[in-house]
Each structure stands twice: as C-alpha cells, then as structure tokens.
C-alpha cells in the first residue's frame, strides 16, 4: 500500500509526490502508441508490492466471485463490438446478460442474502458493457427487487426463479414523458371496476406515456406499472401493480 505525501516546490510552483513506502523504477521502457498489449506487459516494470493484496484491498468484498468474473470476461460474447445496428446492440446486451445469469453471478435473492454481491456484479459488468449493465439493473434491481420486496408469495413462486434465469424478463413502468420519475405528478391512472374486479389502466394524454422504459421496447415479458389508484371516483394513492405482456408465450 502506498502513502503519498505532497511536496511543494515554491520556486517552480510544482507539486511533487514522494512515496513513503516504495520507490519508483529507475527507468521506464521506451513505448509508443503502436506497442501491442502483450509487449506492454513484457516491458512494463514489475511492481515491488503484492498485486494480490492490493486487489483484495480494492475489491472489498465477494473476492472469489470477483476473481471468477474477471476470468469470465474472456468469454467470446464479451468481446467488444463496434459500429453495429440498434437491433444488434439490443441483442448483444441480452446475450451478455444471459451469459452472466447462466454463470450464476447475480440473483434477485442477493438482496436478502448478500446485497454487496449485487453491487459487485454491476461494478464488474459495467467494465464490459454499460448498456448491458443498465439492462441488468432494470431486471434485478427495479423489476426484480420490486417483485421480491413488495410481491406476495404468489408472485415469488411465479417469478423469482425466472427473473434469475431471464426466463421472465421485466421492466419498470414509472417514467412518463412529461414528468420523468416524479410519481406525484404522473398522470397514468388505474381505475378499479367493482363489477369485474379489474383495474382499468388509462393514459389521459401524450405526456402521460410511459417513456424510456428499459426492456420495454424489446425482450420484456412483464412490467411493474406505477399509476394513481382510482376507487369509487376517489384518487386513493400512487400505487404499482404487475402486468403480463402478451409477448410472454
């Protein structure tokens, strides 16, 4: 571990850093922007401290899982791809998330058993593909976390296993075009029909459209919808409820 101490050179108005516990290599190799990564690894000076100890310090938690995930990054589907279409981008995000789920790096039950594992997986996944990581956040944190925390035993039996495997992909229907994530100002309503015992969802104007819903354009089978509950003509409270998309076979 390095402890750095600033040393101010008044004459030159410069701030230099000196190490209290280690010395810098005497000379750096001659490199260029055309040097290949393998050559960089060969030429760069070996550190005079334990990289394993530094990694353990910086990782903080879930060390075995993090080490396994770093090896997993060499999976062919994780290889960077550029200049691809929107359809390819969406499918690639799904394929990458599917591989993460297949390797059991994340579970919605981690919110109960090991919350730090959720954050560790997000941290490492974002190195590969931030777009895919957003998809993972919606699936496990927003949709999955809502089902796990607010759902009943019925919902847990029906959905939790499928959330972990991506057999049941969900999205989070809060954001509206005119109000963003402001649940107080949103205009979507769910009116209770006492005769049919159903909720009638209504979008009164274009600004009340559910908008920017990750997984909503493609892949989602379920949605957690936020709306104002109307019962017997009275606006009761902002509520959320679960809907099944017709795309779920």
Descriptive keywords:
7 strands; alpha/beta; 8 helices; 249 residues; two-stranded antiparallel ribbon; disordered N terminus; 38% helix
Main beta sheet: 5 strands, mixed
Distance between the termini: 55 Å
Strand segment count: 7
Structural class: alpha/beta
Strand content: 15-25%
Strand-and-helix sequence, N→C?
A: EEHHHHHHHHEEEEE
Mean pLDDT: 86
Number of helices: 8
Tell me the overall shape.
Answer: elongated
Poorly predicted parts: 1-23
Radius of gyration equals: 25 Å
Question: What share of residues is helical?
Answer: 25-40%
Give structural notes.
The chain is of the alpha/beta class and 249 residues long. 38% of the residues lie in helices and 19% in strands. It contains 8 helices and 7 strands. The strands form 2 sheets. Strands 3, 4, 5, 6 and 7 form a 5-stranded mixed sheet that branches. Strands 1-2 form a two-stranded antiparallel sheet. Strand 1 and strand 2 form a beta hairpin. The N terminus is likely disordered.
Q: Mind sketching the topology for me?
A:
Blueprint: E1 4-9, E2 14-19, H1 37-43, H2 51-59, H3 63-72, H4 86-102, H5 110-113, H6 115-128, H7 130-150, H8 153-165, E3 170-173, E4 189-193, E5 198-202, E6 222-231, E7 234-244
Parallel strand pairs: 3-6, 4-6
Antiparallel strand pairs: 1-2, 4-5, 6-7
Helix pairs in contact: 3-6, 4-7, 6-7, 7-8
